[in-house]
């Protein structure tokens, strides 16, 4: 092939479940070896539940419980050491794999040597610590692939994904990111391994994260900026299904989906794909495949522009846990624009998304993710002007084109707190 015709590039994304142990890492290596004949960027998340563990480390550290924070960090190191021990085929291989991650664990423990930082720096420090999970997993995967003959280059995503400083939910600076990542098009390496979830604030140089479950989004960022042919997201399910199979055993695979329907499903909470993933692909006409890393021989779901739009594809999406907030005017005046404006201002300031809204003459109800670190500040901000009431631990169900019978069967025994119907969709807040 001449240098004027760059070889096409594909992106693979593997989540935490796919690399939660040594056999998972070997399985990923097998998939890469068997399937990826073209140039490849491999995006990987933190192993297993490492992100949750790192969140715990940060929480304990900020609560002044340093011994607990160190203990949690130690458990995380043991977990990765165990994976390395099982992966290593001989002592020299083990030494190499350990040498790759030791500086990262040193950085983690180094943070904890410092006294608990000021509360206001929580989000910033969270990103410096929690993003280490992806750095560790990608180091192990990249080194393991190289040591088993699958040559690749390890990339630090923070050199390529440029963001602002909205820590824990950083916004991508698309122009700067495109300029950076497009340089990889001329890079001769066949394969590159890079972390999902992390980026860097161009101004401060701090690490940032793109929000929980953000690795799918990273994969879409690389696909978009490289003009990739295809992005494949490897999951523990056969593909996108018409309901979460973990909750609804009757769920069936959807073999093809247009971008618009995929955007809609993820918007309502189909957690199989991060909601920000589809748009960057749609804008460039890049196909998205969702395939099973457990049954990699199956075709999975193909999401693309030419897929037939279906007005009647039924699905069930459950988003949980949700908090239902009800606000009322204090003086019995009608609920008006000034009250809505206050609510939207506070939602925006606190980075909270409202998922369902219902207004009456005297009240306004809306659903948000049931996160105490967000719900309580919101109630606190609204209460000087509005009466507030809330209930947590709820489900938000979105049903599309279900028959009355199916709907009744699904909902039997559940208490409906809010109901919103349109010809296509039913949304319900359930207790
Ligand atoms: P990752 O390993 O990439 O983090 P996730 O665990 O976030 O993957 O996503 C996969 C999970 O998404 C599945 O195990 C499944 O329970 C859940 N899921 C929710 N809705 C759907 C759906 N409509 N189709 C398939 N899986 C779904
Ligand atoms: N590791 C991060 C998380 O658990 C990002 C991801 O897995 O997509 O949220
Ligand atoms: Mg996930």
Properties at a glance:
431 residues, binds magnesium ion, binds adenosine-5'-diphosphate, 13 helices, binds aspartic acid, six-stranded antiparallel β-sheet, Carbamate kinase, VC0802-like, single chain, eight-stranded mixed β-sheet
Topology:
Layout: E1 9-14, H1 22-35, E2 39-44, H2 50-62, H3 66-87, H4 91-113, H5 122-130, H6 132-147, E3 153-154, E4 162-163, H7 174-182, E5 191-195, E6 198-201, E7 207-209, H8 215-226, E8 230-235, E9 256-258, H9 259-268, H10 278-284, E10 287-292, E11 301-304, E12 315-329, H11 337-350, E13 356-359, E14 363-369, H12 372-382, E15 386-400, H13 404-411, E16 416-421, E17 425-430
Parallel strand pairs: 1-2, 1-8, 2-5, 3-5, 4-6, 8-10, 9-11
Antiparallel strand pairs: 6-7, 10-11, 12-14, 12-15, 13-14, 15-17, 16-17
Helix pairs in contact: 1-3, 2-3, 2-5, 3-4, 4-6, 7-8, 8-10, 11-12
Magnesium ion binds near residues 15, 16 and 213.
Quick description:
The chain is of the alpha/beta class. The chain contains 13 helices and 17 strands.
Q: What would your notes on this structure say?
A:
It is a single chain. With 431 residues, the chain is α/β, with parallel strands linked by helices. It has 13 helices and 17 strands. Strands 3-5-2-1-8-10-11-9 form an 8-stranded mixed β-sheet. Strands 13-14-12-15-17-16 form a 6-stranded antiparallel β-sheet, with helices on one face. A 3-stranded mixed β-sheet has the order 4-6-7. Helix 11 (337-350) runs antiparallel to helix 12. 39% of the residues are buried. Bound molecules: adenosine-5'-diphosphate, aspartic acid and magnesium ion. The site of adenosine-5'-diphosphate has 16 residues, from loops. Magnesium ion (MG) is lined by residues 15-16, 213.
